[in-house]
Specification:
Number of domains: 2
Radius of gyration: 20 Å
Shape: globular
CATH topology of the largest domain: Ubiquitin Conjugating Enzyme
Strand order of the largest sheet: 3-4-5-6
Number of strands: 6
CATH class of the largest domain: Alpha Beta
Distance between the termini: 34 Å
Structural class: alpha+beta
CATH architecture of the largest domain: Roll
CATH superfamily of the largest domain: Ubiquitin Conjugating Enzyme
Helix content: 25-40%
Largest sheet: 4 strands, antiparallel
Length: 234
């Protein structure tokens, strides 16, 4: 709520393109193309629209909030294509990361708590044991673009690492080397057609865990001195 309060405070400043009602959190603020046409705001709040002189019908919110095709009438078909919007999903991931509810060998959070678009994240991986990664802590940066979670995050190592598929120039992870990143788009498409499993297979945490597993497969490779960082992060 503190984060939402700060966002609301900024929303009230003159000239700010974001509007949010006091009674609603940032998680309900979603880009709605039809709403932009009505209000001129690129990001609007459902409750703000509902208070407008010409309130939009409830079906409008259902259609945009869950990305449901209004032409579909079959209930099972509608449930199959419903997708969790980007902001909802990232807020859930943020809460899980802040509460330390994920895997103990990885952690993650927003790079800037003021990043209301939740684009830039930091991650940490504790090196796998019984190899050259043991007792090392690796820092990473992750970028969730506007099409996340349909598209995978862009991930860079900040800490230097000798690992196939990781650029020795800027630490970028080639998604073709890490299974979940390579198959992300395909899995996302499958999830859009089928009910979601209890545990979300596509998340920042899942990506970090997969990278750590990949590191474990190459734990015998010699590594740069501990604490080394790529030049762009020094």
């Amino acid at each position: 709520m503190q984060h939402a309060d700060r966002a609301h405070g900024r929303a009230q400043q003159p000239g700010n393109p974001f509007r949010c009602a006091p009674c609603i959190t940032l998680s309900f603020c979603l880009p709605l193309s039809s709403a932009v046409a009505q209000t001129g705001d690129p990001l609007v709040c459902h409750s703000s629209l509902s208070l407008s002189p010409n309130p939009l019908p409830f079906s409008f919110f259902v259609t945009h909030l869950f990305q449901i095709n209004p032409r579909q009438t079959d209930a099972s078909e509608t449930m199959a294509v419903a997708q969790v919007p980007r902001n909802f999903k990232l807020l859930a991931e943020l809460e899980k990361g802040e509460k330390g509810m994920g895997a103990g060998a990885c952690s993650y959070g927003l790079e800037d708590p003021e990043d209301i678009l939740m684009t830039h994240w930091t991650g940490t991986i504790w090196g796998p044991p019984h190899g050259h990664h043991e007792n090392r802590i690796y820092e990473l940066k992750m970028e969730c673009g506007p099409n996340y979670p349909k598209e995978p995050p862009i991930i860079h190592f900040v800490s230097q690492i000798n690992l196939p598929g990781v650029s020795q120039t800027d630490g970028r992870v080639d998604p073709n080397y890490v299974g979940i990143l390579r198959d992300w788009t395909r899995i996302s498409a499958e999830l859009s057609r089928n009910p979601r499993p209890k545990e979300d297979p596509l998340s920042l945490e899942a990506a970090l865990i997969a990278i750590r597993k990949y590191m474990e497969e190459h734990k015998k490779l010699p590594q740069p001195p501990e604490g080394s960082k790529y030049p762009m992060y020094k």
